[in-house]
């Protein structure tokens, strides 16, 4: 891979919170048209297979890479989705289905529980923070829904 491209990918990755090796691995895998074996990723980056395997697991948990197998081989391959809208849509759906759903289920009960108690001034301030957070999450849920609907309208 060209050094300037590696540096660009690492910079973008670090701005997204990734460490340099994770950024490099993502760049190598993303630029491959097909799935690439972990051994080939190790060769291209110059890092050990163990290091690559650990970082790939991390990137897989973030949803950046997908692990695959090819028939007739025991090697592990990884692939990066190339369609940015699909990646973004998956992340938005995951945020909505997991995090926001949990907040919508649990937070009203928590707020009611504390509203029915006699609170100190500090506790009232904390309750205000929680209520504001809940309103923000509901607003964010609406934004996600709007974005998902707009993504469906576009080819």
Descriptive overview:
It is a single chain. With 155 residues, this protein is mostly helical. The chain folds into 2 domains: 3-79, Arc Repressor Mutant, subunit A (Orthogonal Bundle), CATH 1.10.10.10; 84-153. It contains 6 helices and 3 strands; from the N terminus they run ααβααββαα. It has helices at 3-15, 20-30, 38-45, 49-62, 84-115, 121-153; strands at residues 36-37, 66-69, 76-79. The chain has a 3-stranded antiparallel beta sheet with strand order 1-3-2. α1 (3-15) packs across α2, α3 (38-45) crosses α4 (49-62) and α5 runs antiparallel to α6 (121-153). The protein is elongated and about 65 Å long. It starts with a helix and ends with a helix. The mean pLDDT is 89.
Short overview:
The protein has six helices and three strands; from the N terminus they run ααβααββαα.
Number of helices: 6
Strand content: 5-15%
Compute the average pLDDT: 89
- Write down the Rg: 21 Å
Low-confidence stretches: none
What descriptors fit this protein?
mainly alpha, 3-stranded antiparallel β-sheet, 155 residues, Arc Repressor Mutant, subunit A, 2 domains
Secondary structure elements and pairings:
Elements: H1 3-15, H2 20-30, E1 36-37, H3 38-45, H4 49-62, E2 66-69, E3 76-79, H5 84-115, H6 121-153
Antiparallel strand pairs: 1-3, 2-3
Helix pairs in contact: 1-2, 2-4, 3-4, 5-6
């Amino acid at each position: 891979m060209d050094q300037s491209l590696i540096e660009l990918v690492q910079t973008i990755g670090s701005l997204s919170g990734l460490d340099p090796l994770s950024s490099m691995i993502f760049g190598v895998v993303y630029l491959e048209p097909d799935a690439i074996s972990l051994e080939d990723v190790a060769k291209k980056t110059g890092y050990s297979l163990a290091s690559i395997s650990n970082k790939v697991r991390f990137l897989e948990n973030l949803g950046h890479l997908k692990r695959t197998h090819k028939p007739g081989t025991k090697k592990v391959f990884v692939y990066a989705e190339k369609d940015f809208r699909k990646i973004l849509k998956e992340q938005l759906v995951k945020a909505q289905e997991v995090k926001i759903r949990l907040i919508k289920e649990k937070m009203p009960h928590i707020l009611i529980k504390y509203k029915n108690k006699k609170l100190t001034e500090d506790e009232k301030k904390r309750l205000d923070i929680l209520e504001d957070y809940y309103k923000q999450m509901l607003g964010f849920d609406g934004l996600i829904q709007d974005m998902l609907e707009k993504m469906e309208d576009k080819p």
